[in-house]
Design brief:
By secondary structure, the protein is α/β, with parallel strands linked by helices. It is built from nine helices and seven strands. It has a single domain, classed as NAD(P)-binding Rossmann-like Domain (Rossmann fold, 3-Layer(aba) Sandwich).
Length: 248
């Protein structure tokens, strides 16, 4: 990387978002770790770089457009131009479809789908104004096959993210901004093990052709590839990493 670039990851205090932030930092990016829990984001940022020179912890509630704008302003005030943004923040809920209340359905879509929409809108506009950017959205296998263990609201939100990725890719392409999605299957993360009961998880893994949960470090490494300057002709794509559950 000729010039050190700046990245922002949502939902980065733990889980997949933290893996992504760590991978981007290891690749030489200055990284803003944002999360609804601002204190947790600040702790994660300090652990990644105790000096505070190359990391920044930010509070960002993804249901608020002004929160995105404030976080982007904070990064710009610290380091300048935003080059890479990863819309990762989400809630994973596994309520059976006939038991989902309207309120729960709306809340999951509000965080997962609206949050990604607002991120693409705010981050995309900032990047377009500079003529360069890399936006990566975290979708899911659930958005492609309706889900294996996740809730209908979660699967629906992730399907929407896949469509938003195409829409923003087309909208921002002429401005030098690429927009892509990662669509992982079940990952070996604490959130997955907490959301899926052990007996159900065992059955889920046995149904995966490779017979194992996905490696979040690989997903993070793929995000780093999509964030690179060399990925200039890759846009509007969804990258499948699901152990062979969904093949096309």
């Amino acid at each position: 990387m000729a010039e050190r670039q700046n990245a922002l990851v949502t939902g980065a205090a733990n889980g997949l978002g933290l893996f992504i932030a760590q991978a981007l930092h290891a690749a030489g990016y200055r990284v803003a770790l944002s999360d609804r829990d601002g204190a947790a984001a600040e702790r994660a940022a300090r652990e990644l770089d105790p000096s505070g020179d190359s990391t920044l912890g930010l509070a960002l509630d993804v249901v608020s457009k002004s929160a995105f704008e404030q976080a982007t302003d904070a990064l710009a005030a610290r380091w300048g131009q935003l080059h890479v943004a990863v819309n990762n923040a989400a809630v994973t809920v596994t309520t059976p479809v006939m038991q989902i209340t309207p309120e729960e359905f709306e809340e999951v879509l509000r965080i997962n789908l609206r949050g990604t929409f607002l991120g693409c809108q705010v981050f995309g506009a900032r990047m377009a104004s500079h003529g360069y950017g890399r936006l990566i959205n975290i979708a899911s296998l659930a958005g492609q096959n309706g889900g294996t263990a996740s809730g209908a609201h979660y699967a629906s939100s992730k399907a929407g993210i896949l469509t938003l990725t195409k829409i923003f890719a087309r909208e921002l392409a002429a401005s030098g901004v690429t927009v892509n999605a990662m669509a992982p299957g079940p990952l070996d993360l604490p959130s997955v093990r907490q959301a899926v009961p052990a007996d159900k998880l065992e059955k889920l893994v046995s149904a995966i052709p490779v017979q194992r949960l996905g490696n979040p470090r690989f997903i993070a490494a793929q995000v780093v590839q999509l964030a690179s300057a060399e990925a200039d002709s890759c846009t509007g794509a969804a990258w499948d990493v699901n152990g062979g559950i969904f093949m096309r």
